[in-house]
């Protein structure tokens, strides 16, 4: 008879433990990067940080490698509340908020720290306001690097070398306009489909930062890398606005802090990779060429004219912010 109270107590403790665990809210964070990419590692770091600052009340389930669909599908799922968060892409986001595409105007930023100063200021606030009007909240800007052109068999030493080149781009209209201005034949394609498309010969080349080129092993397929530095792209970290607005202030602060901390790591990795990967890929058989970027800048100047007409105030603010941040 004396055993019964102890049995009841143990059962009650187990039940309480199960209830506490069951009450922990799960955050699904989806992204399209594979293992080894800084975005992949930063997402996992975010998942490790959140339970600590939320006292176990929040957990994170990371869905990497486009397992929740491509970037556009992840944005739709985030807005609809199917998933809570996504570390997404500038190209896909520009289909929802066109001003995002302006970050990729040709040769706008001289280096990564300049970009980060711009995005962490008024320009980032403007983009967040526009994004909230479309059902999402920007939690942070991780990095997706300054981009370069790769080709299966030759360098792009001058703009004329891109004439007629079949090149894969992300879906953003600005990127397509850049390569059309250079005389190439650009076409958008989902990131997850790119290696197969390059191997099949559907494209002669593509453009990406060194980090993405290396982690996706694109330098093994397109080993001729021309360091054009033609544009920048960010990795916006987004939450569904309805879900975000339903969180307590404490949980919002925890998520914001964790995105920021993971972002410091991710940006640092991007900066380091931008310096070190050239030597690494050279050892693995890739070939590099530096070019006179002035010729490429001149050839793409018309892209600014087009978007100054469409998004005049934002483009003016963005160019002024980039110039100020570069000083």
UniProtKB/TrEMBL annotation:
It holds the Pfam family DctP. GO terms for biological process: transmembrane transport. Keywords: Signal, Transport. Residues 1-24 form the signal peptide. CDD domains: PBP2_TRAP_Siap_TeaA_like. InterPro entries: DctP_fam, TRAP_DctP, TRAP_DctP_sf. GO terms for cellular component: outer membrane-bounded periplasmic space. It comes from the Bacteria. Belongs to the bacterial solute-binding protein 7 family. This is DctP family TRAP transporter solute-binding subunit. It comes from Roseospira navarrensis. The lineage of its organism: Bacteria, Pseudomonadati, Pseudomonadota, Alphaproteobacteria, Rhodospirillales.
